[in-house]
Protein backbone atom coordinates (compact mmCIF):
# COMPACT_ATOMS: atom_id res chain seq x y z
CA UNK A 1 0.00 0.00 0.00
CA UNK A 2 1.08 3.63 -0.52
CA UNK A 3 1.80 5.67 2.59
CA UNK A 4 -0.34 8.86 2.44
CA UNK A 5 2.41 10.85 4.19
CA UNK A 6 5.66 9.96 2.45
CA UNK A 7 4.06 8.41 -0.66
CA UNK A 8 6.34 5.36 -0.44
CA UNK A 9 5.06 1.89 -1.06
CA UNK A 10 4.99 -0.32 2.01
CA UNK A 11 4.62 -4.09 1.94
CA UNK A 12 1.31 -5.44 3.22
CA UNK A 13 -0.97 -3.32 5.43
CA UNK A 14 1.11 -2.36 8.47
CA UNK A 15 -0.35 -0.30 11.28
CA UNK A 16 2.29 2.37 10.61
CA UNK A 17 4.64 3.26 7.76
CA UNK A 18 8.11 1.69 8.27
CA UNK A 19 9.71 4.68 6.52
CA UNK A 20 8.08 7.74 8.17
CA UNK A 21 6.20 6.16 11.06
CA UNK A 22 2.88 7.68 10.03
CA UNK A 23 -0.15 5.69 11.13
CA UNK A 24 -1.97 4.09 8.27
CA UNK A 25 -5.73 4.55 7.88
CA UNK A 26 -6.25 0.86 8.47
CA UNK A 27 -4.49 1.01 11.82
CA UNK A 28 -5.92 4.28 13.00
CA UNK A 29 -7.95 4.19 16.16
CA UNK A 30 -11.66 4.59 15.44
CA UNK A 31 -13.17 7.96 16.29
CA UNK A 32 -14.95 7.90 19.67
CA UNK A 33 -18.59 8.85 19.38
CA UNK A 34 -20.72 10.54 21.99
CA UNK A 35 -23.09 8.22 23.79
CA UNK A 36 -26.63 9.26 22.93
CA UNK A 37 -28.09 8.28 26.34
CA UNK A 38 -25.39 10.35 28.03
CA UNK A 39 -26.11 13.41 25.92
CA UNK A 40 -29.88 13.08 26.25
CA UNK A 41 -29.55 12.59 30.01
CA UNK A 42 -27.61 15.81 30.45
CA UNK A 43 -29.92 17.86 28.20
CA UNK A 44 -33.12 16.47 29.72
CA UNK A 45 -31.86 16.95 33.27
CA UNK A 46 -31.29 20.64 32.53
CA UNK A 47 -34.63 20.91 30.74
CA UNK A 48 -36.73 19.23 33.46
CA UNK A 49 -37.45 22.46 35.39
CA UNK A 50 -38.28 24.09 32.06
CA UNK A 51 -40.86 21.37 31.40
CA UNK A 52 -42.50 22.21 34.71
CA UNK A 53 -42.48 25.91 33.84
CA UNK A 54 -44.06 25.27 30.44
CA UNK A 55 -46.81 23.20 32.07
CA UNK A 56 -47.39 25.93 34.65
CA UNK A 57 -47.72 28.59 31.95
CA UNK A 58 -50.04 26.38 29.90
CA UNK A 59 -52.30 25.86 32.93
CA UNK A 60 -52.09 29.41 34.26
CA UNK A 61 -55.82 29.97 33.85
CA UNK A 62 -56.87 26.63 35.31
CA UNK A 63 -57.91 26.34 38.93
CA UNK A 64 -57.83 23.31 41.15
CA UNK A 65 -55.25 20.71 42.01
CA UNK A 66 -54.46 19.85 38.38
CA UNK A 67 -52.91 23.24 37.75
CA UNK A 68 -50.48 22.59 40.61
CA UNK A 69 -49.92 18.89 40.06
CA UNK A 70 -49.21 18.99 36.31
CA UNK A 71 -46.08 21.23 36.45
CA UNK A 72 -44.58 19.21 39.28
CA UNK A 73 -45.40 15.94 37.50
CA UNK A 74 -43.79 17.20 34.27
CA UNK A 75 -40.64 18.21 36.14
CA UNK A 76 -40.46 14.90 38.01
CA UNK A 77 -41.06 12.85 34.85
CA UNK A 78 -38.27 14.64 33.01
CA UNK A 79 -35.88 14.16 35.91
CA UNK A 80 -36.68 10.45 36.28
CA UNK A 81 -36.16 9.81 32.57
CA UNK A 82 -32.92 11.81 32.62
CA UNK A 83 -31.68 9.82 35.60
CA UNK A 84 -32.38 6.54 33.82
CA UNK A 85 -30.63 7.73 30.67
CA UNK A 86 -27.67 8.93 32.73
CA UNK A 87 -27.22 5.54 34.37
CA UNK A 88 -27.60 3.77 31.04
CA UNK A 89 -25.17 6.13 29.33
CA UNK A 90 -22.55 5.70 32.05
CA UNK A 91 -22.72 1.92 31.77
CA UNK A 92 -22.60 2.05 27.98
CA UNK A 93 -19.54 4.29 27.80
CA UNK A 94 -17.73 2.40 30.53
CA UNK A 95 -17.93 -0.84 28.61
CA UNK A 96 -17.27 0.56 25.14
CA UNK A 97 -13.97 2.31 24.36
CA UNK A 98 -15.44 3.53 21.05
CA UNK A 99 -17.83 5.85 22.88
CA UNK A 100 -17.39 8.79 25.17
CA UNK A 101 -19.56 10.87 27.47
CA UNK A 102 -19.09 9.18 30.83
CA UNK A 103 -18.72 12.51 32.62
CA UNK A 104 -21.75 13.89 30.80
CA UNK A 105 -23.83 10.90 31.86
CA UNK A 106 -22.75 11.26 35.48
CA UNK A 107 -23.47 14.99 35.41
CA UNK A 108 -26.92 14.33 33.97
CA UNK A 109 -27.66 11.79 36.68
CA UNK A 110 -26.49 14.14 39.45
CA UNK A 111 -28.54 17.05 38.11
CA UNK A 112 -31.56 14.75 37.85
CA UNK A 113 -31.23 13.73 41.48
CA UNK A 114 -31.00 17.42 42.43
CA UNK A 115 -34.17 18.19 40.48
CA UNK A 116 -35.98 15.28 42.13
CA UNK A 117 -34.98 16.46 45.59
CA UNK A 118 -35.94 20.02 44.72
CA UNK A 119 -39.39 18.88 43.62
CA UNK A 120 -39.87 16.72 46.71
CA UNK A 121 -41.08 19.60 48.90
CA UNK A 122 -43.95 20.72 46.64
CA UNK A 123 -44.82 17.08 46.00
CA UNK A 124 -45.19 16.46 49.73
CA UNK A 125 -47.32 19.59 50.03
CA UNK A 126 -49.59 18.26 47.30
CA UNK A 127 -50.28 15.20 49.44
CA UNK A 128 -52.20 17.56 51.75
CA UNK A 129 -54.34 18.87 48.93
CA UNK A 130 -57.61 17.37 47.90
CA UNK A 131 -58.93 17.12 44.33
CA UNK A 132 -60.45 20.57 44.64
CA UNK A 133 -57.18 22.33 45.38
CA UNK A 134 -58.00 23.06 49.01
CA UNK A 135 -56.46 21.36 52.05
CA UNK A 136 -58.47 18.25 52.67
CA UNK A 137 -61.06 17.25 50.11
CA UNK A 138 -63.63 16.79 52.86
CA UNK A 139 -66.86 18.35 51.56
CA UNK A 140 -64.87 19.59 48.57
CA UNK A 141 -67.76 20.62 46.25
CA UNK A 142 -69.50 22.94 48.71
CA UNK A 143 -66.19 24.38 49.91
CA UNK A 144 -65.13 25.06 46.33
CA UNK A 145 -68.47 26.64 45.42
CA UNK A 146 -68.26 28.94 48.45
CA UNK A 147 -64.66 29.88 47.73
CA UNK A 148 -65.33 30.72 44.08
CA UNK A 149 -68.67 32.44 44.66
CA UNK A 150 -70.50 29.92 42.48
CA UNK A 151 -73.89 30.87 43.84
CA UNK A 152 -75.91 28.55 41.59
CA UNK A 153 -73.90 25.48 42.57
CA UNK A 154 -73.86 26.53 46.21
CA UNK A 155 -77.66 26.94 46.24
CA UNK A 156 -78.15 23.57 44.55
CA UNK A 157 -75.86 21.75 46.98
CA UNK A 158 -77.54 23.32 49.99
CA UNK A 159 -80.96 22.49 48.58
CA UNK A 160 -79.95 18.86 48.14
CA UNK A 161 -78.36 18.65 51.58
CA UNK A 162 -79.07 21.54 53.98
CA UNK A 163 -76.53 20.17 56.47
CA UNK A 164 -73.71 21.18 54.12
CA UNK A 165 -74.05 24.74 55.41
CA UNK A 166 -72.20 23.45 58.48
CA UNK A 167 -69.72 21.34 56.49
CA UNK A 168 -66.04 21.65 57.35
CA UNK A 169 -62.79 20.91 55.57
CA UNK A 170 -59.98 19.04 57.29
CA UNK A 171 -58.84 22.24 59.00
CA UNK A 172 -62.28 22.90 60.40
CA UNK A 173 -63.25 25.73 58.07
CA UNK A 174 -66.86 26.08 56.94
CA UNK A 175 -68.15 27.31 53.57
CA UNK A 176 -68.77 30.66 55.27
CA UNK A 177 -65.06 30.91 56.14
CA UNK A 178 -64.15 30.43 52.48
CA UNK A 179 -66.80 32.78 51.11
CA UNK A 180 -65.82 35.50 53.58
CA UNK A 181 -62.10 35.03 52.92
CA UNK A 182 -62.58 35.66 49.20
CA UNK A 183 -63.85 39.16 49.89
CA UNK A 184 -65.85 39.44 46.68
CA UNK A 185 -68.93 37.26 46.96
CA UNK A 186 -71.44 39.09 49.17
CA UNK A 187 -74.37 37.12 47.78
CA UNK A 188 -72.72 33.79 48.60
CA UNK A 189 -72.10 34.97 52.16
CA UNK A 190 -75.72 36.15 52.41
CA UNK A 191 -76.99 32.83 51.04
CA UNK A 192 -74.98 30.83 53.55
CA UNK A 193 -76.20 32.99 56.43
CA UNK A 194 -79.81 32.66 55.21
CA UNK A 195 -79.38 28.88 55.16
CA UNK A 196 -78.29 28.87 58.79
CA UNK A 197 -74.50 29.14 58.68
CA UNK A 198 -72.92 29.82 62.07
CA UNK A 199 -71.60 33.37 61.84
CA UNK A 200 -69.26 32.74 64.78
CA UNK A 201 -68.04 29.28 63.76
CA UNK A 202 -64.42 28.80 64.75
CA UNK A 203 -62.03 26.91 62.52
CA UNK A 204 -60.31 23.81 63.78
CA UNK A 205 -56.92 24.38 62.18
CA UNK A 206 -53.83 23.79 64.28
CA UNK A 207 -51.36 26.49 65.27
CA UNK A 208 -48.89 25.13 62.73
CA UNK A 209 -51.06 26.43 59.90
CA UNK A 210 -50.19 30.00 59.05
CA UNK A 211 -50.88 32.79 56.59
CA UNK A 212 -48.98 31.11 53.75
CA UNK A 213 -51.57 28.35 53.65
CA UNK A 214 -54.41 30.78 53.03
CA UNK A 215 -52.39 32.55 50.35
CA UNK A 216 -51.74 29.18 48.68
CA UNK A 217 -55.31 27.96 48.58
CA UNK A 218 -57.10 31.27 47.97
CA UNK A 219 -54.86 32.80 45.27
CA UNK A 220 -57.51 35.19 43.99
CA UNK A 221 -57.58 37.11 47.26
CA UNK A 222 -54.07 38.46 46.75
CA UNK A 223 -50.70 38.51 48.45
CA UNK A 224 -51.80 40.76 51.33
CA UNK A 225 -53.99 38.06 52.86
CA UNK A 226 -52.65 37.48 56.35
CA UNK A 227 -55.54 35.77 58.12
CA UNK A 228 -54.33 33.70 61.02
CA UNK A 229 -55.64 30.24 60.26
CA UNK A 230 -55.58 28.62 63.68
CA UNK A 231 -58.09 27.27 66.15
CA UNK A 232 -60.87 29.74 66.71
CA UNK A 233 -60.63 31.71 63.47
CA UNK A 234 -64.07 33.06 62.59
CA UNK A 235 -65.53 34.07 59.20
CA UNK A 236 -65.24 37.69 60.37
CA UNK A 237 -61.48 37.28 60.77
CA UNK A 238 -61.23 35.79 57.27
CA UNK A 239 -63.16 38.72 55.83
CA UNK A 240 -61.04 41.18 57.82
CA UNK A 241 -57.89 39.79 56.19
CA UNK A 242 -59.28 39.88 52.65
CA UNK A 243 -58.47 42.59 50.15
CA UNK A 244 -61.46 41.72 47.97
CA UNK A 245 -63.41 44.64 46.59
CA UNK A 246 -66.49 43.71 48.65
CA UNK A 247 -64.70 42.81 51.87
CA UNK A 248 -66.09 45.86 53.66
CA UNK A 249 -69.65 44.91 52.71
CA UNK A 250 -69.03 41.32 53.85
CA UNK A 251 -67.67 42.51 57.20
CA UNK A 252 -70.71 44.76 57.65
CA UNK A 253 -73.05 41.87 56.76
CA UNK A 254 -71.38 39.51 59.22
CA UNK A 255 -71.55 42.14 61.95
CA UNK A 256 -75.23 42.73 61.21
CA UNK A 257 -75.85 38.99 61.57
CA UNK A 258 -74.25 38.92 65.02
CA UNK A 259 -70.57 38.21 64.37
CA UNK A 260 -68.57 38.57 67.59
CA UNK A 261 -66.12 41.40 66.96
CA UNK A 262 -64.24 40.61 70.17
CA UNK A 263 -63.67 36.90 69.50
CA UNK A 264 -60.03 35.84 69.52
CA UNK A 265 -58.30 33.02 67.70
CA UNK A 266 -55.74 30.66 69.22
CA UNK A 267 -53.05 33.30 68.75
CA UNK A 268 -55.07 35.82 70.71
CA UNK A 269 -55.95 38.02 67.74
CA UNK A 270 -59.30 39.70 67.17
CA UNK A 271 -60.74 40.44 63.73
CA UNK A 272 -59.60 44.06 64.08
CA UNK A 273 -56.03 42.99 64.80
CA UNK A 274 -56.11 40.59 61.85
CA UNK A 275 -57.23 43.48 59.62
CA UNK A 276 -54.40 45.66 60.93
CA UNK A 277 -51.85 42.97 60.19
CA UNK A 278 -53.24 42.70 56.66
CA UNK A 279 -52.96 46.50 56.30
CA UNK A 280 -56.72 46.71 55.72
CA UNK A 281 -57.00 50.00 57.59
CA UNK A 282 -60.60 50.81 56.62
CA UNK A 283 -61.75 47.39 57.82
CA UNK A 284 -59.74 47.78 61.00
CA UNK A 285 -61.44 51.10 61.71
CA UNK A 286 -64.87 49.62 60.97
CA UNK A 287 -64.20 46.76 63.36
CA UNK A 288 -62.80 49.13 65.99
CA UNK A 289 -66.01 51.15 65.89
CA UNK A 290 -68.09 47.98 66.08
CA UNK A 291 -66.15 46.95 69.16
CA UNK A 292 -66.84 50.27 70.82
CA UNK A 293 -70.56 50.06 70.10
CA UNK A 294 -71.50 46.37 70.15
Description of the molecule:
The chain is mainly α. It has two domains: 33-126; 140-292, Alpha Horseshoe (Serine Threonine Protein Phosphatase 5, Tetratricopeptide repeat), CATH 1.25.40.20. Helices cover 53% and strands 1% of the residues. The chain has twelve helices and two strands; from the N terminus they run E-H-H-E-H-H-H-H-H-H-H-H-H-H. The chain has helices spanning 36-58, 65-94, 102-126, 140-148, 151-160, 175-182, 186-194, 211-217, 235-241, 247-256, 271-277, 281-292; strands at 33-34, 99-100. A two-stranded parallel sheet has the order 1-2. Helix 1 (36-58) runs antiparallel to helix 2 and helix 9 packs parallel to helix 11 (271-277). The longest helix is centred in the first third of the chain and has 30 residues, at 65-94. The chain starts with 32 loop residues before the first strand and ends with a helix. Mean pLDDT is 74; it is low at 129-137 and 205-229.
Note the quaternary state here: single chain
Q: Which structural class should the secondary elements be placed in? A: mainly alpha
Percent strand equals under 5%
Contiguous helical run count: 12
Globally, the shape reads elongated
Helical amount among residues, as a percent range?
Answer: 40-55%
| Biggest β-sheet: strands ordered side by side in the sheet | 1-2
CATH architecture of the largest domain: Alpha Horseshoe
Q: Assign the CATH superfamily of the largest domain.
A: Ankyrin repeat-containing domain
What string, H for helix and E for strand, traces the elements in order?
A: EHHEHHHHHHHHHH
Which fold name is given in CATH as the topology of the largest domain? Answer: Serine Threonine Protein Phosphatase 5, Tetratricopeptide repeat
Mean pLDDT: 74
Rg over CA atoms, rounded to whole Å, is 32 Å
Quantity of strands, as a count: 2
Characterize the largest beta sheet: strand count, sense, and whether it forms a barrel: 2 strands, parallel
Tell me the span between the first and last alpha carbons.
110 Å
| Number of separate structural domains | 2
Unreliable parts: 129-137, 205-229
The CATH class designation of the largest domain is Mainly Alpha
